[in-house]
Specification:
The structure holds two protein chains of two kinds.
Chain A (H helix, E strand, L loop, with lengths): L4 E5 L9 E7 L5 E8 L2 E2 L1 H4 L8 H5 L7 H15 L7 H33 L10 H7 L1 H22 L8 E2 L2 E2 L5 H31 L1 H5 L7 E6 L12 E5 L5 E6 L4 H4 E4 L8 E4 L9 E2 L2 H7 L6 H12 L11 H21 L18 E8 L2 E9 L5 E7 L1 H4 L1 H15 L8 H13 L4 H4 L2 E2 L7 E3 L5 E4 L5
Parallel strand pairs in A: 7-12
Antiparallel strand pairs in A: 1-2, 2-3, 4-16, 5-6, 7-8, 8-9, 10-11, 13-14, 14-15, 17-18
Helix pairs in contact in A: 4-5, 4-6, 4-12, 5-6, 6-7, 7-12, 10-12, 11-12, 14-15
Chain B lengths: L6 E7 L5 H7 L3 H6 L3 E3 L14 E7 L2 E3 H13 E7 L1 H5 L15 H11 L4 E2 L14 E6 L9 E3 L6 H13 L14
Parallel strand pairs in B: 1-2, 1-3, 3-5, 5-8
Antiparallel strand pairs in B: 4-7
Classes of the chains: A alpha+beta, B alpha/beta.
């Protein structure tokens, strides 16, 4: 090669939202830099100011159509605190939890089958026109059909608890606005055994893949890192809806633990870099250079001491038994972790459906008004933080959001740099399939580029190649 | 539309939240049946990043918030016989367009950028500038609905539209029998 080049993947596909990747090659074709760019910006933190507090859970979810329930519930949790409510009624909390487990289930199924499975089933370098869920439906109709029906089940749980499949209205400050009818309950219960069987089979598929490819996965875009999630107060169990913050280092030692979520900003800061609208959060006590960390399903499998549903608990132990390190670091092992969580969600949904509190009529509580509230939840993609201040007229005066994909920003960039070094550096001819390896690494994080653009807009994935002086030498698209 | 070949459909998400693409998937089993009649050209749901040929139907989610959105939308107009604006953002800007009208602000976009990158108390910004790398597409002064940028043939309402309305509209288009929406379907939520 005679001149430096920049390769581009634009847009990154089979991820939620819009992003692009740039890979910077020198004259010898070695990778100098590889970056994931979020290229849209929304300005949500500013334009939500002046809106009324009760509107926020309904408006904010429209940042993201894939995990609207996460934003809806996270904002509602922050607004609970502002309306002075620390403890919801049992019906309200359980309806919200049911909504959340329904959404984590549908989102994980969507990510695994509709977005990532084509890479796993057909190969990272298989022809681009084959790498999609429609090809799975053609080649394996049974599997494709199950994927569609499992996602549908989760979406219908959301519809029953929030009123709509996408952008519902169930959670309100201090509670919920509906309970679950016994008719709907019985419809869901009639299908739950089938959902559990299918979830266990999906888990087996992901587990077999991760074990079969263990050596490859160990070298693919992964490196030891810190991990953060909420965990249940006391026993440190996995809890997707509520809990305290725990950050572990790569050896499994606590950096901070059981921290009240409203104090997140004492532990984390977001760094701004000029080449992406997505910020780069870091752990304050370690600093911006080395204080990066990961969130999401694998992070949760690492941080949780236990899982409180039997099948998922067994799967959690099985996962850890497969590795001889205290924590698990393979980026692609996220798929295994994600399917454990699907099993957990199905178990939780069953538990909740059998709970008569869901037919309770005590839906909302009120308390003494406060002016500031933080809500934190474990969204499908990882930890999600909403922080609001509201004045005496009920109008929002301040908003700060840290979404899961933003937490993973540095980690995703490190992963694609690693993959670019191993699969693109020094290659005479760079094929579309090689470039797809970069997307495979990004997809493993299940990034939600829609959420991540809340600052401005959209995130197509495009790869660019820069020389050592940071000059864009060339840009190549991943597809022909 | 011809019945002896599959119709080609392209989809894209511009300044939207991807919820309309999730609504396409909410057709559930009917999506599988639909595969007998249509195939997808470029779409974020597959790995075709550019048009591979002329399409019968283009489906656009989201409005335009940056220059790339405008170029992509124009490309969709050039390559698609029927261009569909799917959902409120494509039709009228939706949530992203809330940045167009911020009370007491002379420069809403600047205010939004300042709030996100300069004045947030929990952010470190060593250069004290907003992201400005050439790789980032230029932001538009306002968020524009699709119909202000190109000619739109059909608007499917909703935030997000239901899987039902998307399915019924597509089938009607494929059969050449689309006759507009029921009054009850013309709603935001």
């Amino acid at each position: 090669m005679d001149k430096p080049r920049i390769l581009e993947i634009d847009p990154v596909t089979r991820v939620e939202g819009h992003g692009k990747v740039t890979v910077h090659l020198d004259r010898q074709g070695n990778v100098n830099e590889a970056r994931l760019h979020i290229v849209e910006f929304r300005g949500f933190e500013r334009f939500i100011q002046g809106r009324l507090l009760w509107e926020v859970p309904v408006i904010v979810q429209r940042l993201c159509g894939i995990c609207p329930v996460s934003h809806h519930l996270c904002a509602a949790k922050a607004m609970d605190r502002i309306v002075g409510v620390d403890q919801l009624t049992p019906t309200a909390e359980k309806m919200r939890r049911l909504m959340h487990y329904g959404q984590v289930m549908q989102s994980h199924v969507l990510h695994f089958f509709h977005l990532s499975a084509p890479d796993i089933l057909f190969g990272f370098g298989s022809p681009a026109e084959k790498r999609n869920v429609f090809e799975i439906i053609r080649q394996n109709p049974e599997l494709g059909h199950r994927a569609v029906l499992m996602r549908k089940y989760g979406q219908e749980i959301i519809e029953a608890t929030a009123g709509k499949k996408i952008h519902g209205t169930g959670a309100i400050p201090g509670g919920i606005n509906r309970n679950l009818s016994t008719e709907r309950r019985d419809q869901f219960l009639a299908q739950i055994d089938e959902m559990q069987d299918w979830a266990l089979e999906a888990l087996a598929l992901a587990r077999d893949y991760c074990l079969r490819e263990k050596d490859f996965i160990a070298k693919f875009g992964g490196q030891p890192s810190n991990y953060m999630s909420l965990v249940r107060p006391g026993d440190g169990a996995l809890d997707l809806y509520d809990g305290n913050l725990r950050m572990l280092d790569a050896r499994g030692e606590a950096i901070f633990d059981q921290v009240d979520d409203s104090r997140y900003h004492e532990y984390l800061t977001e760094d701004v870099r000029r080449w992406s609208y997505m910020k780069f959060p870091y752990i304050n006590s370690i600093g911006a250079d080395d204080g990066w960390y990961r969130v999401g399903p694998l992070a949760r499998m690492n941080t949780a001491d236990l899982i409180d549903t039997p099948l998922a608990a067994k799967a959690h132990e099985d996962l850890h038994a497969a590795f001889d390190t205290p924590l698990i670091h393979g980026v692609l092992d996220n798929h295994w972790a994600r399917m454990i969580e699907v099993v957990h969600c199905v178990e939780k949904i069953r538990e909740l459906l059998n709970d008569p509190d869901l037919q309770g009529t005590d839906l909302v509580v009120k308390g003494e008004r406060r002016h500031e509230g933080v809500g934190v939840i474990e969204a499908p993609r990882g930890n999600l933080i909403h922080h609001y201040k509201v004045d005496e007229n009920d109008q929002v005066t301040f908003c700060n959001l840290i979404v899961s994909t933003t937490h993973n920003n540095e980690a995703m960039n490190r992963s694609i740099r690693d993959v670019a070094n191993k699969h693109i550096s020094g290659q005479e001819v760079i094929t579309e399939g090689m470039m797809n390896h970069l997307e495979v690494a990004i997809r493993a994080y299940d990034p939600c580029l829609s959420c991540a653009t809340h600052a401005l807009g959209q995130m197509p994935l495009k790869v660019e190649l820069f020389d050592s002086n940071d000059v864009l030498i060339d840009s190549a698209l991943q597809s022909p | 539309m011809s019945t002896d070949r599959k119709a080609r459909i392209a989809t894209v998400s511009l300044a939207g939240c991807f919820g309309c693409h999730m609504a396409i998937l909410d057709m559930d089993e009917r999506l599988i049946d639909l595969m007998a009649r249509v195939e997808f050209d470029r779409s974020p749901l597959n790995d075709l990043k550019r048009f591979t040929g002329r399409c019968d139907i283009g489906i656009v989610e989201g409005g335009c918030c940056n220059e790339e959105n405008v170029h992509t939308l124009q490309e969709f107009r050039r390559n698609c016989d029927v261009l569909v604006a799917l959902g409120q953002c494509a039709i009228m800007g939706g949530l992203p367009a809330m940045r167009n009208a911020i009370m007491h602000s002379d420069d809403p976009l600047r205010d939004c950028l300042d709030e996100a990158y300069l004045s947030s108390p929990y952010t470190r910004n060593l250069t004290n500038t907003v992201p400005n790398d050439p790789v980032l597409p230029l932001l538009l002064d306002r968020v524009y609905p699709c119909s202000e940028v190109v000619e739109i043939d059909l608007q499917i309402p909703g935030c997000a539209p239901s899987g039902d309305i998307i399915h019924d509209t597509l089938i009607a288009l494929l059969d050449g029998k689309f006759r507009g929406f029921e009054r009850t379907e013309l709603r935001f939520d």
